[in-house]
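cron nightly-structures :: item 1 of 1
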Amino acid sequence: MTLKRLHALIILFITLLLTGTPLHAGDVTSAPSFVPSFPMLAGENVMLMWIPAPGAVKYKIYFDGKEIGEAPAPPFTTPAPTEVGKYTYTVTGVDASGEEGPHSAKVAITIVKLEAPKGLMHRFLGEVLNLRWETSSAASIYDVFRSEEKDGEYKLIGSISENKFIDPYVKDNKDFYGKTFYYKVVAIDKFNKRSPKSEIYEVAIIAGPCSPPNNYPKKPLMIMRSKEVLSIKPDISSCDDIATFSNREYIACLDTNSAKVLVIDMDGKEVLTIESSENSTAVLSKPTKIATDKENNIYILDAGQSKILAYNSNGILLYSSPYQMIGADELNLTRVKFPQKYESRMPNLKAILVHKNKIYAADSSTATIQIYDKSDGSFIDYLKNKNTGEIQLFMPTAKMLLGEEQKLYLVQQSGRIVRVRNIETGERVYEIGLAKNWVGAFLGIGSMTFDINGDLVVTDYKMGGIQVFCKGFGRYMYHIGDEKAIYSNNRNRPYFSSIEINRNLGPISVDSKGRLWIYINNTKSFSVREYIGDKIWDSTVDKPEVSVPKGMLDGFNLHRK
């Protein structure tokens, strides 16, 4: 047999196999089997593909048990269902005598409802506006519309397959301050069907008292100079968390290793100690986080006992209340995934906040926030969205602060971000720490507090920097540095903004005089600092002279006069 004839026979065999024509007529004894990933949506149709059955000369196709057509060979295309639901298909082989073989296994396709996009939010990456929204089921593309009037004409500005869109027109700069823009998003499915438009989403470019100066550079390192006016070494082995009293005249330092809380005044005088001893009413075991209320009562998370401890301002124990056990009855298990399903256990509380008559405690194991009654420590509920009643889920939270207008600031280390939510409704307000340049971004969030203006102060233990963000809308304002401030564009430590406080940053606080208290871990002391004047140094313009020990700044690219 020649090679050419062998090739022709192979082609003939493959053709006969694919067309289902038998080499010898006979009954169809086996069912066709569907190819993986089929049925498949193809435009407004459903495509079916199967492996031919021996002996079949044609095939019958069934939809939900009813015959809908025949085909001499795969594939087979049929209009897709238009109603929401789950639909099944089977196929049979038919031999030369017209006898039908067994049905294939059922395969299914699900048609879902195309809903309007929800959960629109925004952030600025540098100056550019970035919109996001929740993914809509069945959507393959989204149309984005913008208007400068809420009830005006919305013009199409882009189409995108992802649930995010960058609008390069809207800028976060002085040319746009005072302007407001409105957006709507429409989801479109594979059949080119369109969802209703989303609810109107408003983006206001705010110019307030904490707006950057007019000469605000695009890639700045704005530094507010500071100098040390007091150095305090308290009688503790470490300061792992700080709570500031309501009048800002005292701060409470929590020492986990020594199971101790030390309260000191603005001059560094130790006025109160809470620790376990034979002559003490305290029962501290392994305290991890601390908070205060407006009456200057002190609340402590104690991981050693899995309890919340409450003391008055004189250090008298008010109560000791156990953490609320986590179990199937407390949480919506369709949204919260448990490592051990349905097994009750103690939460892993990592942050605490006191607001009005409630204690909020963040649980890292379920990414939820538990709420307790501050009068007796009894469990109340989980933080929920007031509009939907759903338990709010967050990335694990390491620190919580409550700012103006019910803004809840949540430090989420794994995302290197501060997320801001409304504590009453659970709605997202904005996010801090997502800039693509190093200004306003974080490598490792250490601590945070509010200054006397209500602006957010955040330390970064990896970059060795302290940054300040506007209270109204989270815009980066400036770094806090030493009087001999230094700029570096080293990739691993881009902003080396202070000689004295560049490393080992611990918890921070601000007193009633507006001074910044920074705990320095390696010296086990507080550096109390006040600002030098009110002029911010712009590293893109000013190039200060520096004088530092030889070798201290090796590897850093410094800008000098």
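cron nightly-structures :: done
The mean pLDDT is 81.
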